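anyone seen this seq b4? input:
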Amino acid sequence: MKKSFLTSIIGAAMLIGGSSMLFTSCTDDDYWPYSPPSGWGADYFYDNRLNGEWELTQANSRPVDRYETNYMDFLGNGRGRYYYYYNSRPYSEEMAYFCQRSNSNTTDYQINIQYEDGSASTMAYWFTDNGNTLWLQWLSGNQTVTYIYSRVSYIPW
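predicted toks r here
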């Protein structure tokens, strides 16, 4: 009887301990930096014209097909999500962003995006078509890269 009681207590303790590990292994991403990293100063803002869902439609004046496209969902206040295909499979990750004034010859604004995978991009941006077309432009080596995004009503994920 004593052995069976002790076995029951150990079993219950293991069950409770295992359950608590399951619940604590889920992480909350409140640590995500939705504001600029230190050193960027206070010269930033969140451009509400970006808010909404955007689909990549052209890359360097070339239309993109279904598995080359990606999507950005700007939720406001520096929060967003990036959707893309890899090996024809859909993936998504969190992104953080902020905007600044730019000294570019193309536009007065630049956007800084930090992706969940740790990569980051700084790009000049501007709008056409009454705010329904978003242009992103940056230098890659000595080549200018231009992506054109169109506002969409939903992301097909």
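The longest strand covers residues 89-101. Residues 39 and 151 are 32 Å apart (CA to CA). kinda curious what u guys think
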